[in-house]
Amino acid sequence: MSNKKGRVDLLLGAQWGDEGKGKVVDLLGSEVDVFARAQGGANAGHTVIVNGEKVVFHLLPSGMLYPGKLCVLGNGLVIEPEQFINETKELFDKGQDRARLAISPHAHVVMPYHKMLDKLQEAARGKGRKIGTTGRGIGPCYVDKYSRSGLRIEDLLNADILREKLTQILEEKNMILTKLYNEKPLPFDEVYNPARKWGEVLAPYVEDTTALLRKAVDDGKRILLEGAQAALLDIDHGTYPYVTSSSTTAAGAFTGTGLAPRDLDRTISVVKAYTTRVGEGPMPTEDLGEVGEKLRTQGGEFGATTGRPRRCGWLDMVVLRYSSALNGADVIALTKLDVLTGMGPVKVCVAYELEDGTRVDTFPTDTRVLENAKPVYETLPGWSEDISWCKRFEELPKAAQDYVNYIERELNTPVKLVAVGPDRTQTIDRGMKD
Ligand code: IMP
């Protein structure tokens, strides 16, 4: 029997990322004691708007904007030290009172050769086979982790261990760089010296984060696990190979922090009111015409990490049913509802028509089948009134309320929060904080 005293919420993206998770974290922020990330790295991009100022985090948890809180980078992350240093510095320069930060010694280090290999591998894949990665070295770093030849944060803290491991690693990496990709080898000192410096800068933050989180739960603290990327980018359950290299669904939160499944109280699924995707891979509701363009412009749909225009289209209920089941969504946070204002009648994809003419309402497991799936739409009434000022659900136009009710009914999950604009205050809270 669990005698757990704390409260753990897990926040996950339900589509292909960029659902506006940062904003939801931000809204819950004042109630939370500990924010933790469990997977991914600087491929994420959390945008939050505070007092009209846009702040983008790639590596740091969004909770960093709350002074006095504890922010954890768990063991499941792949950390690019330079990025970490830049983000913490930016916050400090802005005069932001920093939250206390703890980094797991078991998180892996994204090294310069990982970023090089990420780009070289993408180029080698050639047209039609590219994944469209963020170029942050995520895949190659996780490869090293799982082949047990990676560097962990703890390795940066000990000069002798770092020297020994890096000597061996660079031997292999330089073979790959020179023989396979015709690149120049990386001189040892050019990799080792900065890595030693990173170790010195990171050392004060390195702590046993698993123990820290365990204690927080036992002490009755409120913890928010911030998922990065989203269900359809999951290495196992996503649209492989067009995915990221970590477990972005609920299970990843436990391996990536050391918390146990029974610690979890609530899973919050963050759903954008329409669909977007960055990078390659199937996206049945992608609209290459006017609708896609309008969503992109009205929604400011350009990648926070790479600046790439996002692919846009109508909401896909097949995707949402799939991700809700995978994640065990207890509640939904619906974001960017305001972007649908003035779009005319709103379409929702309820099923796919496959190449052989069959109609399915479950997510196809075969990526190639999905690539040829055509969306089957239902049309719902749209609205043209400005909704960005609405603070209560009843203030929304009837058609917008119906849209929210539709999602709630179809997924059999309460929509506890509706975002109607980018600012912290532009939110309808229907009990998300409870
Ligand atoms: P990687 O994570 O850089 O290896 O990229 C793999 C795929 O995941 C690419 O399609 C990226 O565009 C996508 N991706 C990675 N991180 C994010 C994110 O935070 N939001 C949306 N897409 C992402």
What does this structure look like?
- This protein is an alpha/beta fold.
- The protein has 2 domains: 7-100 and 208-429, Adenylosuccinate Synthetase, Chain A, domain 3, CATH 3.90.170; 108-205, Adenylosuccinate Synthetase, subunit A, domain 2 (Orthogonal Bundle), CATH 1.10.300.
- 32% of the residues lie in helices and 19% in strands.
- It contains 13 helices and 19 strands.
- The protein has helices spanning 21-28, 81-93, 112-125, 138-146, 153-156, 159-180, 188-202, 209-218, 250-255, 290-299, 317-327, 367-371, 398-411, and strands at residues 7-13, 34-37, 46-50, 53-57, 70-73, 78-79, 100-103, 108-109, 222-226, 266-272, 275-277, 311-313, 315-316, 331-335, 346-353, 359-360, 374-380, 415-419, 427-429.
- The strands form 5 sheets. The protein has a 9-stranded mixed beta sheet with strand order 7-5-2-9-1-10-14-18-19, with helices on both faces. Strands 13, 15, 16 and 17 form a 4-stranded mixed beta sheet that branches.
- Strand 18 and strand 19 (427-429) form a beta hairpin.
- Helix 3 (112-125) packs across helix 4 (138-146) and helix 6 crosses helix 7.
- The protein is globular and about 65 Å long.
- 48% of the residues are buried.
- The model has no long low-confidence stretch (mean pLDDT 94).
